[in-house]
Amino acid sequence: MSELELKIDEAESCAELHALKCSEILEADGLPEALEYCREQGIEPPQCSLTAQSMNADNLRVKAARMLSEEKWWKRRLGNQAGRKFEHEKILAGEVTSFISEESLEFHNRKRRKCR
C-alpha cells in the first residue's frame, strides 16, 4: 500500500466519529453549530441558508443535516482532503515535476481501473 493510500485510509477512518459527532451536535445545538464543526475540521460544509424562509431552503437544511450525519459523506470529503494535503506536501518538497506527483497519478489510475 502506498504512502498516499495509507494517508487516505487513515483520514477516512475518522468518518464515523465525525458523523456521530455531527449527529450529537445537530440534536443538542442545531444545524449552525454542526456546520461550524464541519468548517473547524477543514471540510467545506453542505451549502444551505440558515435564514431563508421557503420550501426549498427548508429542504436544503434537512439535506445538509442528513449529509453531516452520514459516514459516507464524511469519508469522501476526508479522503479528498488527505489526497490534497499529500499532493501539497509533495509540491513543497519539490517532488512534483509535472502537474501531479507520480504516486498520486498511480493512485488515481488504479482507482479508475477499479471503477470500470
**Which structural class fits the helix and strand makeup?**
mainly alpha
The oligomeric state of the chains shown is single chain
- The residue ranges in which pLDDT falls below 50 over 5 or more consecutive positions are none
Number of helices: 6
* Total beta-strand segments: 0
Using the alpha-carbon principal axes, give the shape.
elongated
Distance from N terminus to C terminus (CA atoms, Å) equals 21 Å
Estimated share of beta-strand residues: under 5%
The biggest beta sheet is recorded as:
none
Rounded radius of gyration (Å): 17 Å
Helix amount, in percent?
A: over 70%
Description:
With 116 residues, the protein is mostly helical. The chain contains 6 helices and no strands. It has helices spanning 3-12, 15-28, 31-40, 55-68, 71-92, 102-115. The longest helix is centred in the C-terminal third of the chain and has 22 residues, at 71-92. The mean pLDDT is 94.
Secondary structure elements and their pairing?
Layout: H1 3-12, H2 15-28, H3 31-40, H4 55-68, H5 71-92, H6 102-115
Helix pairs in contact: 1-5, 2-3, 2-5, 3-4
Highlighted features:
116 residues, mainly alpha
Report a brief summary of the structure:
By secondary structure, the chain is mostly helical.
